[in-house]
Amino acid sequence: MRVGLFIPCYVDQFYPQIGVATLELLEKLGCEVHFPLNQTCCGQPMANSGFEHLTGGCNSLFIDNFEGFDYIVCPSGSCTLHIKEHLHEEKREDKASTIRKRVYELTEFLTDVLKVENLEANFPHRVGLHQSCHGQRGLKLAQMTELNAPFFSKPEQLLKQVKQLDLVSLSRKDECCGFGGTFCVTEEAISVRMGQDRVKDHEDKNVEFITGGDMSCLMHLEGILRRQQSPVKVIHIAEILNSTVK
What we know:
Blueprint: E1 2-5, H1 9-14, H2 16-28, E2 32-34, H3 44-48, H4 56-66, E3 71-74, H5 77-86, H6 93-102, E4 103-105, H7 106-113, E5 126-129, H8 133-138, H9 154-159, E6 166-167, H10 183-186, H11 188-204, E7 209-212, H12 215-227, E8 233-236, H13 237-241
Parallel strand pairs: 1-2, 1-3, 3-4, 5-6, 5-7, 7-8
């Protein structure tokens, strides 16, 4: 199983340890992982701001880097969803279509493709899970609480396999954190207030860590936590699933 590792640009620049954790985790689970060195931004920021017509270069480069892999795995729901829904190139639409079907968010890949049921991970801490909107509502990684339907959560399914991890039950478990990409720039005050509300729900449950599958959301929450001088930390789910106690 040849896996292409797709790392979001903000992870590459600010949180490289998440890319390393994702690589190590996939290799532990038997995948042959490759990291195309020429990969850059997938084009999501431009598309979210109304400039999708300027993402042609990003699309072309993505196809150059990731065609030929059995699967493409990304530790980000928002970037994964962008590729699934927006990767196109007129002259190579057949290759773009194949890639769109082969790209997976990390927890989606672990549960749906590898069907992981026994993780050798250990994280002795009290943890709250932030379910990002792109992952939940776009990729269907978890059921939305406003729907009268059976509950499921792929991230929770994996976290419950981690030894000694105490996963708390939040009051509003699928509420948006307010990041929203460029929304946090154009609507700063609303974004901050939403983030404060999201942080309070975790703090009320006395968590030590907030985790999730989108570091963009966690970065937003991390900024609020630091400004409030809160002892709560953020950690990407890949880091927890890859963790061991030495």
